[in-house]
Batch of 2 targets.
Target 1
Amino acid sequence: MPAIVDIRNLSKTYDDGFQALKDVSLEIEEGEILALLGPNGAGKTTLISALCGITTPTGGSASVGGHDILSEYRDARAMIGLVPQEIALEPFEKVWNAVRFSRGLFGKPRDDAFLEKTLRQLSLWDKRQAKVMELSGGMKRRVLIAKALCHEPRVLFLDEPTAGVDVELRRDMWQVVAGLKESGVTIILTTHYIEEAEAIADRVAVINRGEILLVEEKQALMTRMGRKSLRIDLTEPIEAVPAGVEEYELELAPDGRALTYTYDTSAERTGITRLLQRLSEKGVALKDLQTKQSSLEEIFVSLVKEDAA
Amino acid sequence: MNLTAVRAIYTFEMARFFRTLLQSFISPVISTSLYFVVFGAAIGSRIDQVEGVSYGAFIVPGLIMLTVMTQGISNASFGIYFPKFIGTIFELLSAPVNFLEIVLGYVGAAATKALFIGIVILGTSAFFVDLNIQHPLAMVAFLLLTCISFALFGFIIGIWAGNFEQLQLIPLLVITPLVFLGGSFYSISMLPPVWQTITMFNPVVYLISGFRWSFFGQADVPIGLSLMAIALFTAICLGLIWLIFRTGYRIRS
Ligand SMILES: Nc1ncnc2c1ncn2[C@@H]1O[C@H](COP(=O)(O)OP(=O)(O)O)[C@@H](O)[C@H]1O
Ligand SMILES: [Mg+2]
């Protein structure tokens, strides 16, 4: 199946000469949730802006649903919903009129029932007659999402949707995203909150300094890059790591009451059985064991660090 | 052509107007009445007649033009500048619309507002003076063309402006003087010869003169020239807008 969003060697050099995107290629499958991860200034917003028509790419090409974003911009853009990073809304307009405007702007015939459904889904129905400026920040963001959804997009871009929002909205939003995925909408979400990607994404793309560093299934990425650590709590404190287990490069806690072994989950054998056996042979009494999987966050930080090096 | 989008923009822009309908309605009524009190009653009582028309009636076309021009510009320039300023322009740029449709929506709404106010002034004037419009069709055509061309011009200013000062700059420094010196309140023939010549470089003179001709059947300049002037102005604005469209000037980075 061809990718619903197909980005080929896309570049963007801003007027001031700054190159924000360098030869970005990325294929996004229909129906998946892709998290675009990257630190501030990595080029996430620029990439989305180029795909949505807010900024013109200076090199390469891209298509959405098979439609070139430049030569067939009408067909391409009609499929896209965009929730921008910054809240930008007409302050004096009523919520209802704002969403109706968006639907019309995208050329869709009036459909009040669909708008009602969208507003209800985002807990905005009670506020439909309120002016935008009377709403709280979180509510405004909901309006932005409603505006993006009210023309029934097949591809939804969420640019840092949960930056600075409350827990409730975040939960609602994840629910909406899950519902959209159910109905086959493809979702591209930029974030620098790794937990978000970890919680909802199918695949993760990491971007830094305008370049895609990797694209991978979230699960595979975590398995491949994931380090696990085994913490061994001891009954009695010890002075030093016992001899005979050097190859494990154990770390002794400052208080001498715990040993930590870090290993790769993708390794054939982890050697844990032998390690525990040897420790007990050395007379070290074990109290408890604990393993911990490193999070996407740690993976991400190490990737970006590698890139900087 | 995405007509649904044009209508959406138009409706949305008109809503801004209707929100302040009372103000939109009352302020031209009051200002027109004031003009009549000051110019019509105070000065008019001394001038009596201009080219066979009572001074009060004589100033009506100029008054309408003056307001329609400034309103057309300010409505359209603000209409497109505001989304740039608050950032909602992103939605226009990401929508499946072309620049022509955006222009139709914004300029259409701005021209409609200007037209509405022009009609309100015309109606208010009828309370003060006897109006007998000799060429009603030409009057409507001139009024419409002026609304549209000045809204187009305002749209260009709104695209060009990078801040609120620039938004006000051209209307204040160029349009207002030209409009006030364009013969709204006097006939060109009342000026000394040197000034008559200088005045002929003011494009607004041709518009006001033509509009006045449609009321009273007489003009400072031949009606053909007036028509050419407004056509030329409209063409220049359309050309500029086409250029903006081609280059994405100040809209799409
Ligand atoms: N209009 C612009 N002109 C020049 N540089 C820009 C412009 N917009 C963004 N940039 C630069 O491009 C880089 C990427 O920005 P952005 O795409 O917003 O990053 P992100 O969304 O990942 O935080 C940043 O270094 C930013 O300063
Ligand atoms: Mg960003």
Target 2
Amino acid sequence: MADILDVAIVGGGPAGQAAALHLAGRGLDIAVIDEQPRPGGQILRQPPASFTVPGWLAGRGYARLKHQLARFEALDDIRWLGGCSVLDLAPTMDGLSLLAATPGGISRIRARHVLVATGCQDLAVPLPGWTLPGVMSAGGIQAFVKSQRFIPGERILLAGTHPLQLIVAEQVVRAGGEVAAILFAQPRAGMIATAMRHPLIALRRAPDLAAAASAMATLRRAGVPVRFGAPLHAISGMDRVTGAVTGMGEIACDTVGLCYGFVPQSALPRMAGARMHKAGPAGGWACAHDHWLRSSVVGLSVAGEALGVAGAAAAAAGGAIAGIGIARDLGLFAPEQAERMARPHRHAFDTHRAFAAMLDSIADPTGHLPRPDAETLLCRCEDVSFETICGAIEQGGSANAIKLATRCGMGACQGRNCEPALLRLLGDVGRGDDPGFTARFPARPVAIGDLAESG
Amino acid sequence: MKRVDVAIVGGGLVGCATAWRLSTAGASVELIEAADINAGASGQNAGSLHFQIERRFLENGDALAEQASSIVALSRIAVEDWRGLETALNADLHVSMAGGLMVAETADHVALLERKATREQREGLKVRTIDGDAARAIAPYLSASVLAANHSADEGHADPRTVTPALAAAARAAGATIRTHSAVHAIGRRAGGGFTIAGNGFSLHADQVLIAAGAWTAALCTLANLHMPLYPVALLMNATERTAPMVPHLVQHVGRRLSLKQTHAGNLLIGGGWPSRLAQLPGGGFDLSRRATMIPDSLSGNLRAAIDVVPAISRLNLIRSWTGVTAISADQLPIVGQVPRMPGLWIAAGGSAFTLGPTFARLVASAMAGGPSEALDIVSPARFEHLNGFMG
Ligand SMILES: Cc1cc2nc3c(=O)[nH]c(=O)nc-3n(C[C@H](O)[C@H](O)[C@H](O)COP(=O)(O)OP(=O)(O)OC[C@H]3O[C@@H](n4cnc5c(N)ncnc54)[C@H](O)[C@@H]3O)c2cc1C
Ligand SMILES: Cc1cc2nc3c(=O)[nH]c(=O)nc-3n(C[C@H](O)[C@H](O)[C@H](O)COP(=O)(O)OP(=O)(O)OC[C@H]3O[C@@H](n4cnc5c(N)ncnc54)[C@H](O)[C@@H]3O)c2cc1C
């Protein structure tokens, strides 16, 4: 590998691929790094090459993304570093430095430009019973179904506020699984009213709405109840899930998928010291950026869900803008030329983000999240209960002080799961301006023996 | 305007412990902290209770080592302070004093250990030198590369997360006022004695002032028009995932930077003074308001030292590394006591003030009330009076 790459792209999802496609073929040294072995990202999570899945993601909505993925995989001047987790990102004198855990050990990668396109993750939602085996994120269920055609339960209940649970349920049903019910905590009238407030946006994104409608139809045919104004209160079971206590009464199930929205994967830009701001209503942090999607850290751009959750199409459009912007900064395009090339992508980016904003307000979990009880663990890495955290909040400290006092956020996930819940609680008592946890190395746990050999 | 006997600047271990001691003795105290209690070095450190002479005193030749060995007198007092702290505060601070081993891996290191033990014995500290096998008999987790060790039966560790908050709670219970999220911006001398302390939205009169602001102490001293040769240093700490009990002792290295222990929760904490990079101000100078960044070679060097001494660490996962900022003085010894040219102004900063902080606090509180202060003579700011010949 070159001593210093021209561009390192972290994330091989729609955003990373789109950027790579605009940077390839110009004599640059480029690597795309992803902790998954194969490119695709969340939405096109690919089955392992060694086993094929019949009719893998046959739906229409995926055609464009699959086409982009095929073009990306055909590139021959980009290094694909699959199975490599980026642990650290830090600015240096001449660019940025990454530390990655690769199948062959720890390796330091230096690059003049870095694009962070690391996507998002499901919002973790603490409620009574959420640590029982059988409770998953809806996205987690989808990942099983997509990449292995494995249905992680006999009878799955989906609950939350995000319409994605309709798509997940449809995928489960099509794969032959049983869905007990889909519960939306918010009333249907409110969702429709929100959509009606933005008729043009909704119209422009008719295919997505059609996908949701077709999912509804499939579910109806399969006899799966879809309920609105039906909050989930608690999950019951002794050593695994046996049911759920909901606004519709007790529902028997062995698996619960929670779907209250998504938060950006923000660890790397935060570690690099980039300026961040609050992401959508589900919480989390999004990277502040200029109109080439450059962050406040020189050489660091961000695209895709890491900018704020807006769906695969916006991710691809943003990836293209960021890729063109980097090529421009490397002197490959004149400013006017870059502007011209970016124009259609900017248009798509804006349209999709407007839709995403509408989706955000439809799916807004504020006021619809289940209530933890005193013993509910907010931080499951370090076993810190809701009660303990409420006690610490009363002492008046910042999120960092509460982390220090209670260990909440000190575990293996680095606070990715508990931080949104903690910040929400701080917001409830008028401390919504808290800057959150200080981001710490490493972004993923890593064996000490491997790290010791990295110097 | 509000008037107190003592104003304390800084809500770390030293400030909170002194507030507790003073208010217990009946003084009126106001402690002012810029951020949260325990937000500085006191909440970021390794939690080692190390009473043996530290490696950093040994690596710069015999003359400095000799001078530094005077600190042992304070360490001996600190052993007793730590033994009584949980009872005195009626709090669980996870104090464990199961002994500490400072190991050597080469013949040179062994010689260093022996010279160090001689100094310590001369100062009355109970330390013995044992060979590698004897060390492994006490601590079977040690690697075969360990040739010898100094063993101190008193050493150990406590939980930095809980110690300072417990001290703050005790100070409050004894009547101290604790003001957080209030930075001190001005320290003025009053005609006729005493000081005015002010910040955003508050000001008060105090007969005496203690600056216990850790790495910020030099900056606060400038508010009183004084030089104080204390410099910020940023250090690296690492935590492994939790694991079954395996290391009951404090483990240090005489020739390499390493400190290692297992917390009550099961994580191994690995540190030992590996440098990090302080954030800088554009025109030069350090910016203590921003997080210090990790130096890659420090990380690998620290972890390698840990694995060489305790090989089982190799298979554990690292879950978190962090940087913390503390203060070091011009001669490496702490600076604790009254500033001779400014009666009523006290400093307590520098050195390993997790281990020594409770002792500094007790001695300063007693000296402020007019009690004896000889134990603090070796660390008195008087030794830097020459820097303040044109100040004050
Ligand atoms: C579980 C889940 C399911 C989803 N399902 C849908 C859906 O059905 N329809 C839809 O429209 N949207 C869905 N979304 C939203 C979806 O993420 C986006 O629409 C789209 O995939 C975003 O593209 P992206 O390029 O920003 O990120 P992603 O596609 O998420 O790609 C990011 C990539 O970065 C990699 N990565 C992250 N961190 C690191 C690191 N530290 N080191 C190395 N690699 C790293 C990841 O492995 C991943 O491959 C889902 C999101 C999630 C979390
Ligand atoms: C990584 C690391 C590991 C260490 N390991 C050990 C160890 O194992 N054993 C040991 O004995 N020692 C150790 N130390 C040293 C020890 O942590 C410190 O000596 C000790 O905590 C200092 O306590 P303090 O109260 O003086 O300072 P601090 O805890 O730093 O407190 C100073 C406080 O002053 C406040 N402040 C600053 N400016 C102002 C202002 N203008 N107004 C009001 N308040 C202000 C700050 O916010 C801060 O809270 C370590 C230090 C570090 C950084």
